[in-house]
Amino acid sequence: MNYWLLTTEYPPFFGGGISTYCYFTAKMLVKEGHQVSVFVNDASIQDVVQEEEDNLRVIRFNPARTGSSSFLGHVTNLSYEFAHIVKDFILKDGKPDVIEAQEYLGIAYYLLQYKHLQYDWCKNITVLITMHSPAFLYLEYNHVPTYKYPNYWIGEMERFCIQAADVVISPSQFLLTEVEKRFNCSHSNFYIVPNPYELKERREEDQVTVKQEDIIFFGKLSAQKGTFHLLRYFKELWENGFSEALYLVGGQDIVYHPEGKTMGDIVRKKYKGFIAKGILKLEKQISPAEISRRLASAKVVIVPSTVDNLPYVVMEMMSLGLVVLVSKQGGQAEIITDGTDGFIFDHEQPDSFVTQLNRILKLTDAQRAAIGTNAIKRIRDNYSSQKIYKEKVSVIEATWQRLQARKLFPFIRPAANQADVIPVPRNGLLSVVIPYYNMGKYIDETIASVKNSEAVHKEIIIVNDGSTEEESLAKLLPYRNDLFITVLDVPNQGLASARNIGAEKAEGQYLAFLDADDKIAPDYYKKSINVLEQYDNVHFVGAWTQYFEDSNKVWPTFTPEPPLILFHNLVNSSSLVYKRSSFLAAGKNDKAMPFPGLEDYDSVIAMQSKGLNGVVLPEILFYYRVRKDSMIRGVSPVKKLILYDYLGKKHKNFYATFATDVFCLTNANGTGTVLDNPSLDLDLLNKLPFNNHISRELISLIKRNKHLKKLAYRAYSTLHK
């Protein structure tokens, strides 16, 4: 089996849970004779570096290879770069049997988009998602605003990865249950397979015999890791006469967003009295090589997470024969049999922490040794690579036996009901409708781009909406004699009417609108129709948009789904390719809107309100001419507000379904009337004194570099003292 593993963390630069999992998984598969390639982003290298040993190949790549960071936010760009490094290696080496990726940060989002949008290089590859720490769940427990951009969008990418994967593995039942509370998945291909862990051979010279007298919290300080709960328990204990010290060992630099300060700074300030007394001690993060020596003095290691998956820290502590006390709120409780190989308390019963801690402190040396022995045996028997390998391979083989072509695109929130559509001939014909009003200067370029489009049976309908300029009328003369072009002359009634007339007169199974000054890439229509033919639940297709003439900006549009499509427009709605029957059923342009400019956005909302959803091809396939006299530039901020009011009232039932989400998105990000890209950190962009391009590059650079993160935090702290 040729197995590819995508990860944002891999040794030696990372030592956290995802990194540890990927290391053990890669070694496990190689040991069983499989070829394994690990792809990991690394901003410190120029392009791509490969390291090979036996059947393991580690591919480190710079996450700025495609240039997409100029228009995508940092995390979204990372996903795009993962897809394209995978594409490059597939074209060079051939397809793997399986690609596995973490759900965290949605790094497989674009890979899965390409797969389900029928791109040849990846459409038949099995994609497995292993859940580790979904941001849409963990940010909630860390009190980070989840509706703030780009946080909400990152959550959407993660949800799509879970929805679109061929199979999803969760290492713990706890994590799967927590995810299911927040997200309804349309497939049932979920399995519980624990993470592998191999006990290290402990040489006699490495054994450290010290007195076990420390109470230790080991891990990063964060709300999700239970730091605040733990300190509250100990504050009460200390105030009631408890005299033993608590050691906090681990990273202290995670920012707690409600305070705008790092966890280390918060703890030092809030508990400075206990620190001064020497009963609360903070120690910085230690290297993996130092763990066994530092933790050897622990009489108990506490893991008090408020939500967690299957933390390796518990496995590692148990494998060292240490006594652990863990919260019930995580997969760590699934590792332990209470009182036999460790101890469990429940945050929902706060007294249980003190009860269990006192129980541990009263253990005799013999009881402590027995628990340590049982803990080592538990890890060896239940999490060895040999055992986990069999479970994982059986899941993959079961997936292969079950795989078949999907007839439904894996939308994050599949429509419950779909409107009845108006039957049209299934003739494979594409009708391209071009509304035309005094656009003689540009029409030749537009028509040429349509005629040059690949392998699509098509007709062109120019709807002359009462043009008055002699030049523009003259430009139509040769097209009136073209066998593949129909020119319809109608009185001037505006863009909405022209589009509707063209759609009704068209004879095609498929329909596309194209403004008379825009252009399309040669393969846009072919790729769009390929998707429309594949899926019963896809009714329109869009693409990324390249502006030209007065702008060179790229607009990376996104598959429009509620609630985001109700908050602001995610897609270039003037560039779509439709199933004509679906457009006629629910998408016709509204001629009664108070001002022109958002008819096509209204059309998308109308279709989605009837369960007629669409997708976006994540590549530049549409070219939008930006002119000083473009109609959209005449939509003033006041007009846009009035139009949004109109949309809200017109589609009030649809908006009501997602009212809470739209309300929270508005509170977190401001009005949706000025937004078009959910992947950007808009709050930071607006605060930096540069243009948006420079700001995006600077933000991306800081987020990629841990040293710059620290400097940025220090600067922030200094300014906000």
Q: Could you walk me through the main structural features you see in this protein, from its secondary elements to its overall organization?
A:
With about 725 residues, this protein is α/β, with parallel strands linked by helices. Helix 11 (about 310-320) links the parallel strand 14 (about 300-305) and strand 15 (about 325). It is elongated, with a radius of gyration of 29 Å.
Task: Report a brief summary of the structure.
The protein contains 28 helices and 25 strands. The protein has 721 residues and is of the alpha/beta class.
Please specify the SSE layout and strand pairing.
Elements: E1 2-7, H1 17-31, E2 35-41, E3 48-53, E4 56-61, H2 74-93, E5 98-102, H3 109-116, E6 126-130, H4 135-141, H5 151-164, E7 167-170, H6 173-182, E8 190-192, E9 214-218, H7 227-239, E10 246-249, E11 255-256, E12 261-262, H8 263-270, H9 272-277, E13 280-283, H10 291-295, E14 298-303, H11 312-319, E15 324-327, H12 332-335, E16 343-345, H13 351-361, H14 365-383, H15 385-402, E17 430-436, H16 443-451, E18 458-465, H17 470-480, E19 485-490, H18 495-505, E20 510-513, E21 519-520, H19 524-534, E22 538-549, E23 554-555, H20 564-567, E24 577-579, H21 580-587, H22 599-609, E25 613-626, H23 637-650, H24 652-657, H25 659-669, H26 682-687, H27 692-704, H28 706-719
Parallel strand pairs: 1-2, 1-5, 2-4, 5-6, 6-7, 7-8, 9-10, 9-14, 10-13, 14-15, 15-16, 17-18, 17-20, 18-19, 22-25
Antiparallel strand pairs: 3-4, 11-12, 20-24, 21-25, 22-23, 22-24
